[in-house]
Write a structure and sequence with these properties.
The protein contains 5 helices and 9 strands. Strands 1, 2, 3, 4, 5, 6, 7, 8 and 9 form a 9-stranded mixed beta sheet that branches. It starts with a strand and ends in an 8-residue tail after the last strand. The mean pLDDT is 93.
Length: 174
C-alpha cells in the first residue's frame, strides 16, 4: 500500500476511484492534453470509469498518486512508472489538472516530495522524465527541483527534452 506523502503545500495519496471525475474532465481539456502530448479522450465517462476501476494505484513497477491541497482538493496526479530496481531508476510523470493552482509552487512541491520519498525509501538512484521541448515552464519547474537535461527524444511526432535527478552521491552509471 502506498503511503500518504506530505510536502510543504500538497499531500500525495494513492489514487482512488472517485478521482476519475476530475481525471476525466482533465483528459477532455485540449490544453492539458497538448501539454501531455496526447489527444483528448473520446471515451464515454462510463468507459473511462470502468478502466479507472481496473487500474491499481500501485504495482511492482509503478505507483500513482493524487495531488491534493491540504484542504483535500484533488488538483492533479503524479506517477512513477517503469520502476527498474536492477538499473536503479524510474520514470516520473506529473500533471496539475486544476489550472487555478498553476504557477504557485504546487507542482514543484509534489515533484520534490515524491523524489525525496524515492531516495529515502527505495534503492532507486535515478528519477527521469520527459517534457515537451517547447514547454519551458515545465522545464523551469523541473530544474527548480534539481532535474538536469540529459538528452532528447522524438516520439510519435513530438520532440521531448529528457531530464534526470540522481540520488545525492550516486552519479548516473553510463
Amino acid at each position: 500500500m502506498l503511503p500518504i506523502l506530505t510536502g510543504n503545500k500538497v499531500k500525495l495519496r494513492p489514487k482512488r476511484l472517485y478521482d476519475a471525475i476530475e481525471d476525466y474532465q482533465w483528459r477532455q481539456d485540449t490544453e492539458l492534453c497538448r501539454l501531455d502530448a496526447t489527444q483528448p479522450t473520446s471515451s464515454s465517462f462510463e468507459e473511462y470509469l470502468r478502466l479507472a476501476a481496473e487500474a491499481p494505484s500501485q504495482t511492482s513497477r509503478s505507483c500513482h498518486f493524487a495531488i491534493e491541497t491540504f484542504s483535500g482538493k484533488h488538483i492533479g496526479n503524479c506517477s512513477c512508472f517503469d520502476m527498474d530496481e536492477e538499473n536503479g531508476e524510474t520514470e516520473m510523470g506529473i500533471m496539475l489538472g486544476n489550472k487555478a493552482y498553476w504557477d504557485q509552487g504546487y507542482g514543484a512541491d509534489a515533484i520534490q516530495t515524491v523524489v525525496d520519498y524515492i531516495f529515502s525509501h527505495t534503492r532507486l538512484n535515478r528519477v527521469y522524465l520527459k517534457t515537451l521541448k517547447w514547454n519551458t515552464r515545465a522545464q523551469k519547474c523541473f530544474q527548480k527541483c534539481g532535474f538536469i537535461p540529459c538528452g532528447q527524444l522524438v516520439r510519435d511526432g513530438y520532440s521531448f527534452i529528457l531530464m534526470e535527478i540522481c540520488r545525492p552521491g550516486k552519479p548516473k552509471i553510463v
